[in-house]
């Protein structure tokens, strides 16, 4: 089980640095919005609004009447000035419940932090209006494989086959992005400033850290691989 308190703490600590370091998440947000072929929505629910990277793109492209932004971190200060129509709610999506129906539910690089991805997706589908769209990005298996093999830690990323079973009759696209860093320290700093070090609270000793960083350096040449997946599900 993921430690949601740790996740909140790590992301809260990195929010001021996130936008400058979330290079791939920025690209993902831009593409996700471009894949949605409608421009008018009555009710929008954004999961994981955080620093507002996706929020800014949504309000620029879409017309809407109501907008609820949800995040485990209290990031209202980051989005309150973007639109007077936006309401913010600090809550974990896995505990979130509502009787409202949304025409668009959208999330960028956030739902991989769920303990039960499949159950959360089915819940979000049930919150869709009859013409609703669920649009999201997540990451496929082997995302950050360099970290998994070096430090033996990883989120439970789904395979493309598993994602296709969850999202039948949906538009699914996958990409691969590789970032190059000058050193293991620079790579790990990137992870810290984008909140990804919330994966584990286990502390490695000096020898373990040294060995893991040597693997990053010698085996992987200080590269980090992102494997984003784009999903557009339309309710019939």
Characterization of the model:
It is a single chain. α2 packs parallel to α3 and α6 (145-151) packs antiparallel against α9. It is built from 9 helices and 9 strands. The strands form 2 sheets. Strands 3-2-1-4-5-9-6 form a 7-stranded mixed sheet. By secondary structure, it is an alpha/beta fold. It starts with a helix and ends with a strand. It has helices at 4-21, 23-34, 53-61, 76-79, 117-126, 145-151, 160-166, 184-193, 206-218; strands spanning 40-47, 63-71, 86-90, 102-108, 128-139, 171-174, 177-180, 223-226, 228-234.
Chain-wise SSE layout:
Blueprint (H helix, E strand, L loop, with lengths): L3 H18 L1 H12 L5 E8 L5 H9 L1 E9 L4 H4 L6 E5 L11 E7 L8 H10 L1 E12 L5 H7 L8 H7 L4 E4 L2 E4 L3 H10 L12 H13 L4 E4 L1 E7 L2
List the main descriptive attributes of the protein structure presented here.
two-stranded antiparallel sheet, 7-stranded mixed β-sheet, 9 helices, alpha/beta, 236 residues, 9 strands
Reading side by side through the largest sheet, how are the strands ordered? 3-2-1-4-5-9-6
Q: What would the principal axes of the Cα set say about the shape?
A: globular
**What value does the Rg take, in angstroms?**
18 Å
How confident is the prediction overall: mean pLDDT? 94
Helix content: 25-40%
Query: Care to count the β-strands?
Result: 9
How many helices? Answer: 9
- What proportion strand? 25-35%
Given as residue ranges, the uncertain stretches (5+ residues, pLDDT < 50) are none
Structural category is alpha/beta
End-to-end separation: 34 Å
In N-to-C order, the SSE pattern is: HHEHEHEEHEHHEEHHEE
Major sheet details: 7 strands, mixed
């Amino acid at each position: 089980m993921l430690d949601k308190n740790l996740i909140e703490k790590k992301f809260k600590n990195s929010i001021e640095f996130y936008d400058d370091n979330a290079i791939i998440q920025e690209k993902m947000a831009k593409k996700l919005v471009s894949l949605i072929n409608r421009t008018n929505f009555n009710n929008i629910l954004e999961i994981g609004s955080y620093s507002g990277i996706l929020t800014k793109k949504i309000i620029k492209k879409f017309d809407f009447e109501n907008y609820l932004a949800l995040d485990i971190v209290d990031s209202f200060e980051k989005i309150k000035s973007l639109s007077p129509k936006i309401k913010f709610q600090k809550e974990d999506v896995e505990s979130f419940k509502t009787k409202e129906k949304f025409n668009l539910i959208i999330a960028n690089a956030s739902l991989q932090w769920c303990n039960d991805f499949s159950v959360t997706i089915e819940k979000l589908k049930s919150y869709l209006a009859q013409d609703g769209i669920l649009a999201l990005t997540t990451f496929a298996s082997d995302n950050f494989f360099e970290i998994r093999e070096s430090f033996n830690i990883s989120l439970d990323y789904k395979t493309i086959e598993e994602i296709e079973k969850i999202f039948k009759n949906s538009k699914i696209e996958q990409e691969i992005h590789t970032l190059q860093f000058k050193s293991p320290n620079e790579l790990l700093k990137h992870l810290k400033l984008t909140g990804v070090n919330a994966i584990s609270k286990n502390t490695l000793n000096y020898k373990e850290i040294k060995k893991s960083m040597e693997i990053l350096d010698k085996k992987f040449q200080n590269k980090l691989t992102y494997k984003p997946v784009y999903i557009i599900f339309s309710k019939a």
